[in-house]
Amino acid sequence: MVYVSDLEIMSGISSIFGTLFTFILGAIMIRKYIRYRERTLLLMSLTMMFVGQPWWPYAIDVILILTTGEYLSIQQHVLIGHTLQPFAILLWMFVMSELLWKNKQKLITIITAIFSTIYETVVLYTIFIDPSRFVIEESTLDYTYLSLFLLCQLISLIVVIITGILFFLGSRKSPQPDIRLKGILFIISVLSYTTAAIIDSALTLTLILLFIVRILLVSSSIEIYMAFAMPKWVRKLFLKEE
Predict the structure, then answer these.
(1) Of 43, 53, 97, 172, which sits most exposed with the smallest number of CB within 10 A?
(2) How many domains does the chain contain in total?
(3) End-to-end CA distance of the chain
(4) CA distance 72 to 143
(5) What is the residue range of 17's domain?
(6) DSSP assignment letter at 138
(7) Per-residue pLDDT tens for 126-135?
């Protein structure tokens, strides 16, 4: 039986609920896409679920530890937690180019695809060749990412922040209240996600900080859902529509 701290157990349990919640919201958005055939709904729902992928191995780890006493290897952790991350940034930029730079979408997609290929190569190298090159296991449920792996994560985060700000600024110019609301909800989601990512990576987590990070990540998914699915209750609450 491996030793895990209360903090690590809580991290795993919160990852289970966070993953389930994100998938439920994603499924609702996909259902709405099937009904209205709005492509950005489908792409953003997949992006949201893929962005939450790093939660998956922690959720599995805590289940394995509590039931079998075992946990995932570094290779398994990276396989389950990061193989879809490069596709997430590709989908993200496709949606952003669809909304902001339609005339440059092909070029943006090609550039992002090159970056995503490099990112995926680093992930696959870590899984199949040398996991110690890019990942250090600090404890049972705590991993530190190094060099190119960390650089790809940082670039992805910077891209999310910049495009989120640009989308928000562009939406402010629209005469349509729902577009302006979408921009506000979207930038709140981006800020929630980036704040959680910075706290998670830069600070030593305590139970309180873990709770804050998980709340921010869940709220980020809710805000994405509200911005792109924009259900009737959101329109009624913020736009005063009947």
Answers:
(1) 172
(2) 1
(3) 57
(4) 12
(5) 6-239
(6) E
(7) 899 988 888 8
